[in-house]
Amino acid sequence: MRGATLHRARKADLSILLPLIAEFCAVDAHPYDEARVCRALGPLLENDSLGVVWLIGEPPGGYAVLTWNYSLESGGRDALLDEIYLRERGRGFGAAALAAIHGDLRRRGITRVFLETETHNERARRFYARNGYEVEPSTWMAAELETPR
């Protein structure tokens, strides 16, 4: 991977994205269900109404998924950096990718971005702190909802 250029991912990029997402899931100890991932990626690869998927580097050696939220606390639309993964670490590509992502978010009028890290991933939290992220006093909670039949 040379550089941390961003390239907007489209449906034609699925064969590049899926192996990267599978690698991310393996590294972060998440289950990987390709059918579920493809269902979720579909709308994001169609247009930017729900968010954006970036391929990072040329040739791509990483990706980032951002989704849009709306919050009174944020003053309107904010973003969630749902996933970011780079095969090569420690060479400045992550910081460069975040800077480019932040620039894109500013151009979209988004002034706040959130992300989630795993409790065990101190390295990731140090990286994000170096790039302007702070620990929020909130605690995320989740509820799995059944799909209507």
UniProtKB/TrEMBL annotation:
One of its GO terms (molecular function) is acyltransferase activity, transferring groups other than amino-acyl groups. Pfam families: Acetyltransf_1. Keywords: Acyltransferase, Transferase. CDD domains: NAT_SF. The keyword Nucleotidyltransferase does not apply. Residues 4-149 form the N-acetyltransferase domain. InterPro entries: Acyl_CoA_acyltransferase (IPR016181), Bact_Acetyltransf (IPR050832), GNAT_dom (IPR000182). This is Acetyltransferase, GNAT family. It comes from the Bacteria.
